[in-house]
UniProtKB/TrEMBL annotation:
Stated name of the protein: Class I SAM-dependent methyltransferase
Statement: the UniProt record of this protein carries the keyword Transferase: yes
Domain of life: Bacteria
Molecular function per GO: O-methyltransferase activity
Matches recorded under Pfam families: Methyltransf_3 (PF01596)
PROSITE patterns, per the entry: SAM_OMT_I
InterPro entries: SAM-dependent_MTases_sf (IPR029063), SAM_O-MeTrfase (IPR002935)
GO biological process terms, semicolon-separated: methylation
Keywords on record: Methyltransferase, S-adenosyl-L-methionine, Transferase
Organism name: Candidatus Caccopulliclostridium gallistercoris
Amino acid sequence: MELSVLRQYAEENYIPILQKPTEKILIDVLKKEQPKSVLEIGTALGYSGSIILNNSSAHLTTIEINKERFDFAKNTFYEQNLNKRVTQILGDANEVLTTLPGPFDFIFLDGPKGQYLKELPYIYNLLTPNGTLFADNIYYHGWVKGDAYPTHKHRTAILRLREFIAKCKELFPNATFLDDGDGIMIAKKTEYKK
């Protein structure tokens, strides 16, 4: 399936995928960094994974908890002849990250937003020195940056994302925060911190 068709399918079926402004920035960062090993948290339909593979020579390891989406992405990678450069893992990233062998020189974080904070220590340890973390949707519909107290339904995710951002500022003093898409953080691991 061509990526334009895949994007249309995602929009029609309310499946969140990479927003266009974020996609452009991701491509620019990939071309600059030239990663060899990429970890993606949140495969969905394989859209962002395809963007990563089409704009680098990297091998992609990608984690997805939803079996239906895992299978859909498998087909996406196969149809684009990218499957030989992908290791797909079906499972909960919170569990997979605890045993996943690394390291990775680029990590694309785009799974459940409320889990970013919990996953951060594992992500940090899996990242090579000078490796890049690219976290998507960190502003969660703009609510994370706002002063309004979040509704009960979204409160936990928003509060955890605020903690995630604060912790990233501590771990990655050079982190860049962008308003594009739904908020992006790009950070390089420059020194070892626990």
